[in-house]
Write a structure and sequence with these properties.
Elements lengths: L4 E2 L6 E2 L12 H27 L4 E4 L5 E3 L41 E4 L2 E4 L7 E7 L5 E3 L25 E3 L21 E6 L3 E7 L5 E10 L2 E10 L6 E4 L4 H12 L12 E3 L7 H13 L6 E4 L20 H9 L4 E5 L3 E3 L5 H9 L14 E3 L2 E5 L5 H9 L13 E5 L33 H15 L10 E3 L11 E3 L7 H16 L5 E2 L11 H11 L5 E3 L15 H16 L1 H14 L4 E2 L1 H4 L13 E3 L3 E3 L9 E7 L4 E3 L15 E7 L7 E4 L2 E5 L15 E6 L5 E8 L6 H4 L4 E8 L4 E9 L13 E8 L8 E5 L6 E3 L1 E4 L4 E10 L4 E5 L2
Helix pairs in contact: 6-7, 9-10
Length: 838
């Protein structure tokens, strides 16, 4: 039987673009039609605005799209009254939504209203669609970003019993205080669906279309089996479909990486903790926050500045009253290895004295209105703004040049970038975004490339941060809110404007797993929630969870109370610091997993089925996950919790990372065991897989930069066969030398007690001279073996190229079954073996 079937149910369709006058109308005639209607549209809009605003003078718009009036009042959102439906409960009796054949209706064919906005459609309807069937599968994943479960739920069905009322919507939008458990569109989207089935394995489909897209999910019975069906419906474009045959997760993600690109290895500082707020007020505030982290021995790597650091929301500038000495400020933080990040958004303030706007206007780099004659004028943080056209290479190149140190005054090599509002966000636009009939510089409507805009903006910024340095040899770091397929090549993504509520902590893991399903691995959710205020318990649980998620940043709205780690009292600060220290100790492991992900395409943060595809009971699980293949994490996401239930795959054994004790499991091989474990306020359940070897660095430092020469501690978790294996990837953690000069090393560590090998290190160097100057900084100071059944009589060390055997000192605890080898005086870049002596 097939693993994917496309177009077999009569739902494949496409509509040929045409003009209103006749099907043979030329492009110039269409353009004349646009120009003829523009004046009428403006007049109509003006009349509607007067009615909408009651004659009040509009002086601006807020992020929720509502007007701000000259008298200081704000527009109130009108309640939309929907007709009641007979069936409204999720999961029960929803009437099936079906398009019925009717007489051809031309209503809304050539123009369409959205609230107060009119979308002219000069080419008429241009939709394309296709249905895909995944035989013998009831578990589909993907289609991020939605604030819902990682597994896709049904939106249609023959019997009316489907979970959601509406299809999944893929249309990048700036969503103010987004709702949970919904199919509504959020900040970025990837039209990838992955099926996981015991019968048909892993398979996927990538619907390459950046226009507004809806996807229905349906389960259909078939002769004693159940199939899953998806129906992609896009506003425009062509049928461009890629099928990924798998047959297992590793194969599928290798295929998808070849298709859309591999994740670039980030600089290691970006894997540390990031401290952000809208906004740190001035340089004194920055110095205070930095000094407080220093005083408390609390590790962090990056301090962020939001929009208020600029001169009137003019990006690439500084407010000279609050930040008069930005270079000195960056250098002071940089002296301990810390970096800074400033926000730079795609909307440009329309001010003829502002050099960015002046040059962009003169060069003709802005998105145009629907006539193609004028630069588009929308409203965002600076007020009246225009938007650069990142779909065009010359605009991306020009933008990249703006990051040169001689242009971005006050920037240094330790300053990196945050791209926000890049859906793009337009406060007075339809759904707080651009009108679909705007034109790019090649006269292509915005509707055709909407979902690409954020990714192309992030790409251009990343290129600028790379090219600003001599030799273009320093890795960039760019955080973006909006994304599309391929964004994994350009930087990190976060889940946007979440709330300081337990429900948003609960949804964080499913959302991040959904992003990882689509191979977007460098992702995170703001610790503590962006809107609102969190108490000490919620902050503690969020910090614990985020320490085991790829991107690790605390952030808050300007109306939220200050929530730096020390703001919750000493007891809570100690807990938060403990979570951060656990993250920093594991940086060698995180860095290795990111490297592995870039090579293989496998996600960093993995659903259980990615590692255990033969256990269908784990397919739907999204409240626990794996980091790489070796750490199992279960965040605590409810108030007052003191226990947690973990689903342990029985095919492996597991060791608690805190106690280093093997978990006592009972069950049949190949299945799983549900076990309740203690998880009081000081505990997040994390387990190392038996058969794995994980590197850590245990010395407390202020930043990752100061850790580079610290020695490693190697943690070996023996499996039931008394074997284990793991990798340690090493390079300079900052530059592209690992790519340009093959300056890297990979240590493959293995244990096999059946052959009397406690641990053996095999080294692969990218180049014969790779990392030769840093061998003394890659030492191993401790080896911990968990699950050692008996005390060795003697341990002997031999190194490659030497016949001498050296006796190694160790300690063994018979009760805990833990063996500790201290100061073995070996380098991770040398080959050596430690054996049990008979």
């Amino acid at each position: 039987p097939p693993i994917i079937a496309a177009g077999t149910n009569g739902l494949t369709h496409f509509e040929v673009r045409r003009s209103k006058e006749c099907s043979t109308t030329t492009t110039s005639t269409v353009k004349n039609h646009i120009e003829d209607t523009t004046a009428n549209d403006i007049a109509a809009d003006t009349e509607e605005d007067v009615d909408r605003h009651g004659g009040k003078e509009v002086v601006g718009y807020w992020e929720d799209g509502l007007a701000i009036y000259a008298d200081g009042s704000r527009e109130e959102r009108k309640e939309i009254v929907e007709e009641e439906e007979e069936y409204v409960d999720k999961g029960e009796g929803r009437e099936q939504r079906r398009l019925e054949e009717e007489e051809f209706d031309t209503k809304d064919m050539w123009e369409e209203k959205f609230g107060e906005h009119l979308d002219s459609k000069p080419y008429g309807p241009m939709s394309v669609g296709m249905e895909l069937t995944f035989p013998s599968s009831t578990h589909l994943f993907g289609l991020p970003e939605h604030a819902s479960s990682t597994q896709l739920k049904t939106t249609a069905g023959m019997d009316g019993h489907h979970y959601y009322k509406e299809p999944y919507r893929l249309y990048n939008l700036d969503v103010f205080e987004y709702e949970l458990d919904e199919t509504m569109a959020l900040y970025g989207h990837i039209p990838l669906v992955v099926s996981q089935s015991v019968k048909t394995g892993t398979a996927g489909a990538f619907w390459f279309n950046p226009t507004e897209t809806f996807v229905d999910i349906e389960e259909t019975p078939r002769s004693g089996d159940i199939d899953s069906r998806t129906h992609f419906m896009s506003e425009s474009g062509v049928v461009d479909l890629f099928l990924l045959p798998g047959p297992d997760p590793a194969a599928l993600y290798g295929q998808y990486a070849r298709l859309t690109g591999r994740m670039q290895l980030p600089p290691i500082f970006s894997l540390g903790y990031h401290q952000c707020r809208w906004n740190y007020r001035d340089e004194a505030d920055v110095y205070f926050v930095n000094s407080k982290f220093e005083e408390l021995d609390y590790p962090y790597d990056v301090l962020w500045l939001d929009i208020e650091h600029t001169d009137g929301k003019r990006y690439f500038t500084w407010d000279d009253k609050t930040f008069p000495n930005p270079i000195e400020m960056q250098n002071k933080l940089g002296s301990t290895g810390r970096r800074m990040v400033t926000i730079i958004d795609p909307h440009i303030k329309r001010d003829n004295q502002y050099y960015i706007h002046k040059e962009a206007t003169a060069r003709g780099l802005y998105v145009k209105d629907k006539s193609g004659n004028k630069d588009y004028d929308g409203w965002c943080w600076p007020g009246s703004s225009s938007y650069l056209d990142f779909t065009v290479e010359k605009v991306r190149s020009w933008w990249a040049e703006q990051f040169n140190y001689d242009k971005y005054k006050g920037s240094t090599p330790t300053l990196f970038t945050w791209n926000d509002m890049n859906e793009p966000s337009v406060f007075n636009g339809p759904e707080v975004s651009m009108q679909k009939d705007l034109l790019n510089l090649n006269s292509v409507e915005h509707r055709e490339w909407h979902n690409l805009y954020g990714m192309l903006f992030q790409r251009s910024t990343a290129e600028g941060l790379t090219l600003r340095n001599e030799g273009a040899n320093v890795r960039p770091f760019v955080l973006s809110r909006s994304f599309f397929a391929g964004s994994q090549r350009y930087g990190a993504i976060w889940t946007g404007d979440n709330l300081a509520e337990w429900s948003h902590l609960q949804i964080a893991s499913p959302m991040l797993l959904g992003l990882n399903v689509a191979a977007l691995s460098f992702v995170g959710a703001d610790v503590g929630g962006f809107f609102g205020n969190c108490d000490a318990e919620l902050m503690t649980r969020w910090m614990q969870a985020a320490a085991y998620q790829p991107f690790f940043r605390g952030h808050a709205h300007h109306d939220s109370k200050r929530r730096e780690p020390w703001m919750f009292g000493d007891e809570t600060m100690v807990r938060l610091r403990h979570a951060a220290m656990a993250r920093y100790a594991l940086l060698p492991f995180w860095y290795t997993v990111f490297w592995q992900s870039g090579v293989s395409g496998m996600p960093v943060m993995r659903t259980m089925w990615m590692q255990y595809p033969d256990i269908p009971e784990l397919y739907s699980v999204d409240d626990q996950y794996l980091i790489g293949s070796d750490l199992l994490v279960k965040p605590v996401t409810s108030a007052g919790a003191t226990t947690s239930q973990i689903l342990f795959p029985q095919s492996d054994c597991w060791f608690d990372v805190d106690t280093m004790q093997r978990v006592d499991l009972a069950g049949s091989p190949g299945s799983y065991v549900a076990k309740t474990v203690e998880s009081g306020i000081d505990k997040i359940p994390v387990y190392q897989r038996g058969g794995s070897i994980i590197p850590r660095k245990l010395r407390l430092r202020r930043s990752s930069y100061l850790m580079i020469n610290d020695p490693y501690t190697i943690y070996i978790a023996l499996n039931s066969d008394l074997k284990a294996e793991g990798n340690l990837y090493m390079d300079d953690e900052t530059t592209f030398d690992h790519e340009k000069r093959d300056d890297y090393g990979i240590a493959t560590l293995s244990s096999d007690l059946t052959s009397s090998i406690i641990i053996q290190n095999t080294v692969k160097l990218g180049d014969i001279s790779a990392l030769q100057g840093s061998k003394d900084g890659r030492m191993i100071e401790r080896i911990v073996v968990m699950g050692m059944r008996s005390e060795p009589k003697k341990i002997m060390l031999t190194t490659l190229g030497s016949t001498e055997e050296v006796t190694i000192e160790f300690q063994y605890d018979d009760e805990s079954k833990i063996l500790v080898i201290r100061r073995p005086d070996v380098s991770a870049l040398n080959q050596w073996t430690m054996r049990l002596s008979p």
